[in-house]
Amino acid sequence: MKLIFISCITILALLNANLNKNIYTQTNPLQESIARGSDIYLDFCINCHMANGEGVDATFPPLAKSDYLMQERAKSIKAIKFGIEGKLTVNGKTYNSNMVPLGLSDDEVADVMNYITNSWGNKNNKMITEAEVAKLKK
Amino acid sequence: MKHIHSIVILLLVTLSACAQQTDSAVKAETPPHLNYTTETVVPDINNPWGMALLPDGSMLITEKSGKLILFKDGIKTSITGLPDVYVRGQGGLLDIALHPNFAVNGWIYFTYASSKGEGDGGHTALSRAKIKNNTLIDLQLLYKASPNTKKGQHWGSRIAFDNDGYIYFSIGERGARDVNPQDINRDGGKIYRLHDNGSIPKDNPFVNVANAKKAIYSYGHRNPQGMFKHPITGTIWVNEHGPKGGDEINIIKKGANYGWPVISYGVNYSGTSFTEITEKEGMEQPLFYWVPSIAPCGMTYVTSNKYPDWKNNILVGSLKFQYLERLILKNDVVVKREKLFENIGRVRNVIEATDGYIYIAVEGKGILKIISKK
């Protein structure tokens, strides 16, 4: 009886692992870019913009449900690529701070943009590509 | 009934996933009255990181993007001849300090992110050089941490000299929390001590440990970005960034382990915990910890007679809350904290210079001098 039970659990576990694997091995360029962008976010962005993109009140603007991020695509890419300083209005609140250039390559900027525009309630189906980032000048 | 059970269990799981934190023992207050104000002395620097006042009253300022600026008689001059600076994430051109005997030997020390050596990415380096005709000469690389990594986080780095001529500098754990800080065979998450020419002192704590990085003086650090020599005791004091909560002030002791990430008063940015303990045998307790984090950067001890209200206090820049924090200590215990110059901007550095004035470096602004209100 015990053996059967263990076998059942093992089979279930294997099935489960396979199912998960199938989800993650699907080749979808946007999903792959978002996954890479998530790692970049944890390294370069999280200490100011926080774990759920909520930012810090009156200091660092939110990315989650941010009107600026979702409506100002080119400006947002440029902010990540070149840094940004001075006054910025996000969701009706004004921020006056400074984000220094992060030293990310164009493909990394695209990845992190795809991540933040598809997280915490944000949705963006029009994928940002390395070429789009490369085209934007200071 | 079954539903209530499920809800209770769900609640318990949710609650236990978010770690509990104990706030700092002393809360920061807004001072009711302030006798000092600031004036901009060097404007328009995007990310001033390190600064050093020269004997002739001019100032050397490092700009994170890789520029070394000499500010003299109201004019900014870019010093040429710098080594290649690897600008990535929190890395770039970092701190700068003069040799205690600078007037005689002219040596300038600076830390920076460098991609020198094998592997993609970079790690923190310490070099020294002299300045002649606005160019660095006699450039010597004194230390280069390895291996390189493309991580953007936690390069340190501050520099200080003690009374015996040793140079101390900090390197953060380079975003490898579970790999670097507790391993003395690896660079990162350490305070280093060298002779002024870069050689390893014979009495460094790990010189006789096979495979250890011999320049290490203390370990178990996360990202130390503030450092001074205590003017009375001569000891080296350091502050470091925690993750979410758990920023610390520590007095550096030879060979000591400051615990990161085995013990910490901080939690992950997501609010989950990475350790259950805040203390452990063989690991140092901080002199003070910040919960919530202020993101401390730069630190100085006030000795100058120009600031009688602040004498013997410690000043720390807050990147996160954009003020200068004043800490009042009694027998090495923080008894009072004040928020000075609230909303001034991200304070990257604070020094008490040889002219007796306190200078702060503010991101997006430049260098500000603290003066008495008229």
TrEMBL record, chain A:
Iron is among the record's keywords: yes
Entry keyword annotation includes GTP-binding: no
Keywords, in A-Z order: Heme, Iron, Metal-binding
Pfam family name, one: Cytochrom_C
InterPro entries attached to this UniProt entry: Cyt_c-like_dom (IPR009056), Cyt_c-like_dom_sf (IPR036909), Cytochrome_c-type_DH (IPR051459)
Coiled coil segments of this chain: none
Domain annotation Cytochrome c: ranges: 32-120
PANTHER family documented for this protein: ALCOHOL DEHYDROGENASE CYTOCHROME C SUBUNIT, BLL4482 PROTEIN-RELATED
Protein name per the record: Cytochrome c domain-containing protein
Species of provenance: Postechiella marina
TrEMBL record, chain B:
Protein name: PQQ-dependent sugar dehydrogenase
Record-linked SUPFAM superfamilies: Soluble quinoprotein glucose dehydrogenase (SSF50952)
A Pfam family recorded for this sequence: GSDH
Domain Glucose/Sorbosone dehydrogenase: 46-365
Signal peptide stretch: 1-19
Keywords: Signal
